[in-house]
Specification:
The chain is an alpha/beta fold and 249 residues long. The protein is built from ten helices and seven strands.
Length: 249
């Protein structure tokens, strides 16, 4: 393992150990930028990270590059790490992703225990439970980055496309579940695209990103305005494993 990967692995192991002691530790695991993680947790309180939104995004991109190349960054999932985070958590990113079994965020980004706050719904939609989870991560854990992660050939988006294009109906709660995705399909169709499904996947992500940026609770909007929180979109390619980030501004 080279020095860069050793440093990154060390950052995973020491993050919560340092937080629990109320220390600030300078790490070199985020692209050599010297990201600073610090916290002063008290009984019943969680640690928070001082990594910037851009540093968090860089770390995710770095992790996906490692996943693509087959390199192992050794996400920390051992017993020592488990005990370190048993009393507090300090994730550096929220990932709103699809429930699809082929899209596990921790693996795609090469992250270990306690590093990602993952919210999963079919079609990566944000309902009341998902929104409350996101707000908790921002307000209580101080997470600096939210990524809305769609993926190629999403079944939930495909169902919404079938409703729009063919008038299909789905049993049980499936139809109600995909209703929030239908406006994204309509947006994509107006663009006259060749691949409506993939365009709808991206449009669904973009609509959710814009909604979160504009219609969240005031404390979320204030963090965005102050530069302490960034919300971006992404699409995972099932065939090649690459995650394409967009709506980064």
């Amino acid at each position: 393992m080279d020095e860069h990967h050793q440093n990154r692995s060390m950052s995973r192991r020491t993050l919560l150990a340092s937080a629990t002691a109320g220390l600030a530790v300078t790490l070199t695991g985020v692209g050599g930028t010297g990201a600073l993680w610090s916290s002063t947790p008290q009984s019943g309180h969680h640690a928070t990270t001082t990594i910037s939104p851009d540093q968090a995004l860089h770390r995710l991109k770095e992790g996906n590059e490692a996943f693509l190349s087959g390199r192992t960054i050794n996400p920390d999932t051992g017993g020592k790490r488990r005990h370190e985070i048993a009393q507090a958590q300090a994730p550096f990113a929220v990932i709103i992703s699809c429930s699809d079994s082929r899209v596990p965020p921790e693996i795609l980004f090469q992250e270990g225990l306690g590093e990602l706050f993952v919210i999963r719904n079919a079609g990566n939609t944000v309902d009341t439970a998902a929104m409350g989870s996101l707000e908790y991560a921002v307000a209580e854990l101080g997470v600096p980055l939210v990524v809305v992660l769609g993926h190629e050939r999403c079944g939930a988006v495909g169902a919404a496309v079938a409703i729009v294009e063919k008038g299909e109906a789905f049993p049980g709660s499936i139809g109600r579940m995909v209703e929030p995705i239908i406006p994204a399909v309509l947006d994509a169709r107006r663009g006259g695209v060749a691949d409506l499904l993939d365009a709808s996947v991206r449009a669904n992500v973009s609509r959710t990103v814009n909604r979160l940026r504009q219609a969240s609770e005031p404390f979320v909007l204030e963090r965005i305005k102050s530069g302490k929180l960034k919300i971006v979109g992404a699409r995972y390619d099932l065939d090649d494993g690459k995650i394409d980030f967009f709506n980064e501004a």
